[in-house]
TrEMBL record:
<dbReference type="InterPro" id="IPR036291">
    <property type="entry name" value="NAD(P)-bd_dom_sf"/>
</dbReference>
<feature type="domain" description="CoA-binding">
    <location>
        <begin position="16"/>
        <end position="109"/>
    </location>
</feature>
<dbReference type="Pfam" id="PF13380">
    <property type="entry name" value="CoA_binding_2"/>
</dbReference>
<protein>
    <recommendedName>
        <fullName>CoA-binding domain-containing protein</fullName>
    </recommendedName>
</protein>
<dbReference type="InterPro" id="IPR003781">
    <property type="entry name" value="CoA-bd"/>
</dbReference>
Length: 160
């Protein structure tokens, strides 16, 4: 297994997905066109509690936004990161500090130092993977828009 591959283990990903209820999304944007917003919307729609962490926003997806992980007033199971890789070491320290079980780094967010800090603090790390894509792969059913319609069919309703 390559060095990065150890942070992409399918069994670890599935365990994290199934044990998570509350997700703090660092870098969640209020802009509906940003990937972080779409991921947050998707996760909220699938029953997760989504907590925005963005010092530039007051509220996102109907939830209050916090300036940092240290300001989040409730326990967090998973920290999902939409930030530049160089922010990861500090975010890993904060993740350990708040007692989150997992640190999930989105596509392109790769930083070995941050991963090491999190792991040494007892935090499971998933890196260079999209939380929405992995959820759809292992938990939900993949619809053409990425939503679970709870229907298995090749025919769209109302288009017969």
């Amino acid at each position: 297994m390559t060095e990065l591959g150890r942070y992409q283990d399918p069994l670890t990903i599935q365990r994290v997905l199934h044990s998570t209820r509350t997700i703090a999304i660092v870098g969640l944007s209020g802009n509906e066109l940003r990937a972080s917003h779409f991921v947050g919307y998707y996760l909220k729609r699938h029953g997760y509690r989504v907590i925005p962490v963005n010092p530039r926003e007051k509220e996102i997806l109907g939830e209050p936004s916090y300036p940092s992980l240290l300001d989040v007033p409730v326990p967090v199971d998973l920290v999902n990161v939409f930030r530049a890789p160089d922010a990861l070491p500090d975010l890993a320290r904060e993740t350990v500090s708040i007692g989150a079980a997992a640190l999930w780094c989105q596509f392109g967010v790769i930083n070995e130092e941050g991963a090491r800090i999190a792991e040494e603090g007892g935090v499971t790390v998933v890196m260079d993977r999209c939380l929405k894509v992995e959820h759809a792969r292992y938990v939900g059913r993949m619809h053409w828009l990425g939503f679970n319609t709870r229907r298995i069919t090749s025919v769209r309703s109302g288009l017969q």
